[in-house]
Amino acid sequence: MALLGKRPKRQRMQRPFFLAFLLLFMGCLAFSVILNAGLLLYGICDEGRIKVDASEASERSPPEEKHVNEEPTKPVDNRRRYLAPLHTYFDGGPNWAYSTFRMELRLALLQNRTIVATPFRVHDRLQRDIVHAMRTLDDTFDVDKIREIVPVVSIEEFYNDCKDEITPEIKWKPFEMILDKSMGNLDRFLKMQRVVGSIGRDYPLKAAVKDGAPQEKSKEFLEATWNTRCLALYFDEDIRWLKTWKDDELFAQVNKHLAWAPYIRDMVDGVYGKICNGRDFPVLHWRNRTGEGCLRNTPWQKKVCKAEDSMNLSILSQLLDMMVDSIVEYMHTQNYQCLYLAYPPYEQEFVNRLKAKFPYIFSLQNLLEMSPEINNYKDENYVLSIVEQEIAVRSKLFIGWRESSWTRLVYNMRYVLNRPNLPMPRIPKMPAVLQVIW
Predict the structure, then answer these.
(1) How far apart are CA 171 and CA 203, in angstroms?
(2) Which of 92, 157, 147, 145 shows the shortest CA–CA distance to 118?
(3) CA nearest to 110, candidates 64, 84, 149
(4) Alpha carbon of 138 to those of 376, 399, 411: distances in Å?
(5) Whole-angstrom Cα distance, residue 208 to residue 434?
(6) What is residue 66's predicted lDDT score, i.e. its pLDDT?
(7) What pLDDT sits at residue 3?
(8) Contact indicator for 393, 421 with CB cutoff of 8 Å
(9) Does pLDDT of 165 surpass 90?
(10) Residue 79, exposed/middle/buried by CB under 10 A (0-12, 13-18, 19+)?
């Protein structure tokens, strides 16, 4: 009985210890739950803090860096996207349009667009009998090579797919005028000039990039055009000064795939080995903007000769002998016995003096005499000019003229081939003033 009487006493002694242990366990469990919840809440808050800081950092970064590194939101529309350039260049020649087309190919690559094969206009100052006639993309460039990087379609295909998306109707008028085979060349030019002028007064694209514009303007242009499926560019200047964060990569692709049309290259194949009797030769491009016509009373003087043109030509006329002597001496020091001279087909006093002092000169006239194929185009300066550019692309050395679209296009084609270019003002002993006038 004594043993049985002591058992309840031991149970009463253990119960406080058990309750204390239970309370301690539950307290630890509660602390663990609270601690985990606190850590989770801290993580959520910290993540939010990081996102806010990144947003603030993005807002604080300069516009140029943001433009270079950021890509606009890409469209979700999976239909074909177009870029249709309208090569107006009312105040320039075809090479201005070629250079712009190179930049348009860059945009088509960047925005995954199909390029529309709109034609180029001939140089109106040199072919007055077929004023403002159109030449096709196939007449000019190797379209198959272009198709290796971007698709190419006709204006008709563009019209059929986009006729309901380009509004108002007046914005279709220039393309319709190009397609209208019954319209005369001069009539087409004058009407297109009026229509494009009307478009310019109410132009939907407000983000055109102008010369010298900050990079933020390029960003605005890309954002304004990125989600437009059927993009028509009516003014060359809209695209000419655009800069993107991938320019080096894009232009490298374009330059590799921009070559003259196959029939041009075939004609040059037939004569290149005969130029300078097969010896290595440089090509010099002489282009003084308007020729000596601006120094006399000519029909073009009032239309195309500016005050600075006449002033520059007056300066050049006084420096001709120095310029010619510098070129002749350079030819001798570089062991060149023959020179191909490319120049516009109007009177040039520089050409006459150079031929008098360095008689081993080839020019377009020699090509016409040696090649019946090239002679077939004797009245088409559009084609003959490209033939000379192809010769310049292949030559041992190319000496270019400052501020010339003709020269710059040859430069770009030669860069891809790792062939040397030399700006004419950098020839030793050349008058320094050529660095600032042309």
Answers:
(1) 9
(2) 157
(3) 149
(4) 18, 28, 22
(5) 32
(6) 37
(7) 32
(8) no
(9) no
(10) exposed
The C-alpha angle with vertex 196 and arms to 195 and 197, in degrees rounded to 5, equals: 90
Angle, in degrees to the nearest 10, between helices 381-394 and 262-271: 60
Higher pLDDT, 36 or 88: 88
Residue 240 one-letter amino acid: R
Q: What is the DSSP string of 209-251?
A: PPTT--HHHHHHHHHHHTT-SEEEE--THHHHT---TTHHHHH
Q: What is the rounded distance in angstroms from the CA atom of residue 201 to the CA atom of residue 221?
A: 19
**In this structure, what token pair is assigned to residue 377?**
């185009």
Say yes or no to pLDDT of 47 above 50: no
Q: In angstroms, rounded to a whole number, what is the distance separating the alpha carbons of residues 240 and 106?
A: 11
Q: In this structure, are residues 345 and 126 in contact, taking their beta carbons and an 8 Å threshold? A: yes
Helix axes 381-394, 94-110, angle to 10 degrees: 70
Model pLDDT, residue 294: 61
Q: Where are the alpha helices (DSSP H) in 61-184?
A: 63-69, 94-110, 137-140, 143-146, 155-162, 173-179
Q: What are the contacts of 365-372 at 24+ separation with CB within 8 A?
A: 366/275, 367/271, 367/275, 370/271, 370/274, 371/267, 371/270, 371/271
Q: Which residue has the higher pLDDT, 83 or 213?
A: 83
At 52 the three-state DSSP class reads helix
Q: Is a pLDDT exceeding 90 seen at residue 361?
A: yes
Q: Which residues of 252-278 are buried (b: 16+ CB within 10 A; e: fewer)?
A: ebbbebbbbbeebbebbeebbeebbee
- Give how far Cα 135 sits from Cα of 66, 115, 383, Å: 41, 17, 10
